[in-house]
Amino acid sequence: MTASARSAPPARPPRQPVDVLEAIDDIDARLIDRLHGELPLAERPYAAVAAEFGLTEGEVLGRLQRLLETGVLTRFGPLFQIERAGGQFVLAALRAEDADYERVSALVNAQPEVAHNYRREHELNMWFVVAAESPQQAEAASARIEQLTGCRVHRFPKEQEFFVELRLSAQHARSAALAERAVQAARGKPGNGSSNGGRHGAE
Q1: What is the dihedral of CA 112, 114, 116, 121, to 10 degrees?
Q2: pLDDT tens digits for 122-164?
Q3: How far is CA 19 from CA 31, 82, 174, 195, in A?
């Protein structure tokens, strides 16, 4: 093991697909939608949200903790302009052979600096974001990924920032999963509300 590997942050365990119907109820779905991008500016924001739902502050916090622990939410927190704090976001891409894609993807996803890993129909077929506390740490993370995977990591540091907000409704996702389950039941087939694919969720 090299010195750089020994000093690397601990890897995250791989995330498993989430069964929407088993993991969240209607209140969870409404809470996710309510908190997506709009936390009240108050001394106790979770208490303010709890009042809207007829819950206690502790119940709201408990639900959020459970959603994080079960993997329904991969992250819950503010988004900062990281460069103003000395950090760096780097869009990165690599080429993984089809036969080796799952192994490489698991190694990339396990790195704590990596988010939003997607497969693309392109010569560079794996694209992800490296988020680090400094440009040096971002470079170290990219170099670590190269060492672990044996694939060259192409770096595309951010040159200009644009605000593009994407909101995906948890209530709609749950409703769609319920509808799918009803259709499968009518056809006499087992169904579930699993959400599959890359790293995603309310963030």
Answers
A1: -140
A2: 999 999 999 999 999 999 999 999 999 999 999 998 888 777 7
A3: 18, 33, 10, 6
